[in-house]
């Protein structure tokens, strides 16, 4: 198969994934790709420390937020539908599935309500939580101090690391972030990945897309030469373009602790989510989900992490 034909098929597959609009739990529309600017966002006014990983103590007692959700009978969850392994639509079943989805569905089950999955972009996560358009976000979202100023987080449920995927020829000579000078690197707008790459290698030509699938399309069209993101996300991208893309051996550029995002005022919901996550770790369901979705591609044991509580 020619390289052009191979890339055409991969691009068609990515476009087909974005075109599907029916969610397995609620009708939704996958956000359409659109051009985004490369203007750097305003710098954060805080520096993330270990204390920022602290969340509220696990508690199933509930409160106003939990009562509101149970009365509605639905948990509105912001997810990805194009992040293979974490949250992606299976074209055979039309269901969204992955590691993050397992966690989202378990939270809804423990609340005793139906899950309503809403496909959102990374940049949508905080505004939709703040407006209560959704109840939680389970979409490979990194916990940091700047976001704590806007929303609340569960305790860490997965420890990822930001890395770089490059064209195979560039991957063969990759020596670290300095190799990205004057290289076009893509990451979704509104993510820590795009912020980090601008700080780590100021001479990298950072470009954005709405999603990592949007970055993959740009990569396959030759508009960018590299994609940066969490190792979990890049593993899914390489699975879609394993001939021309590679993630070279490298030290993670940053630590990316994932948390479930929640409206800042819904502390009782955060406490409930923490209790569910704690149970998933103790009953083996967290490990079972990791082994199913992430281990086959990452080929390593999960990075160790210890959930932190005690937030006042």
TrEMBL record:
PROSITE patterns according to UniProt:
PROKAR_LIPOPROTEIN, SBP_BACTERIAL_3
In what residue span(s) does the Solute-binding protein family 3/N-terminal domain sit? 74-297
Q: State the UniProt keywords alphabetically.
A: Signal, Transport
Q: Could you say which residues form the signal peptide? A: 1-26
One family name in Pfam for this protein: SBP_bac_3
State the coiled-coil residue ranges: none
Transmembrane region positions?
none
PANTHER family in the record, alphabetically?
ABC TRANSPORTER GLUTAMINE-BINDING PROTEIN GLNH, AMINO ACID ABC TRANSPORTER PERMEASE
> What family classification does the UniProt entry report for this protein?
Belongs to the bacterial solute-binding protein 3 family.
Please identify the protein, giving its name as recorded: Glutamate ABC transporter substrate-binding protein
